[in-house]
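Supplementary Note 3. Input sequence used for the single-chain structure prediction.
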Amino acid sequence: MSQVASEGAGVPDDYERLWTPHRMAYIKGEGKPTGDDADIEGCPFCEIPKLDDADGLIVARGQCMYVVMNKFPYNSGHLMVVPFRHVPDYTDLDVEEVAEMGSLTQEAMRVVRAVMGAHGFNIGMNQGQVAGAGIAGHLHQHIVPRWGGDSNFMPIIGRTKTLPQLLADTRTELAAAWGRP
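The predicted structure, written as discrete structure tokens, is reproduced below.
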């Protein structure tokens, strides 16, 4: 047995390891609210706007909504548009909130295209836990930038996403470009 194997690192196999310990918080469900959908206690989307923008990873604030980096992104630049109000369903939004969600989504797309060169986007929301909502009690819309070739062997075969930039750095760039023509 080699020295490496006896130390618990395994037999050398020429594979690279991409360590992502920050994902353990997501896997364990840390910070997710408990209780029913109406439970505001511990809701991260209610807590984030209380932080300063850099600490909360907030890119922009509107009157009814804010735009925030996803802490567990599918791709670099993955944003969410979130109402300040704790509501679980799209049908709970009033006319002004729906309009602002749309305008913030459009601006997010413009900014991500300008700053990161996105080729396309996946935009949507999961309504309820059965539909895949990780935090079903507080509505949020995902804006996921896409690039040609971003579904390569890493996520498909390796079940690994590579993110080339830290969330805080991406947030700084996007926030600086927000509202520019």
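Confidence is low (pLDDT under 50) at residues 1-6. The longest strand covers residues 141-146.
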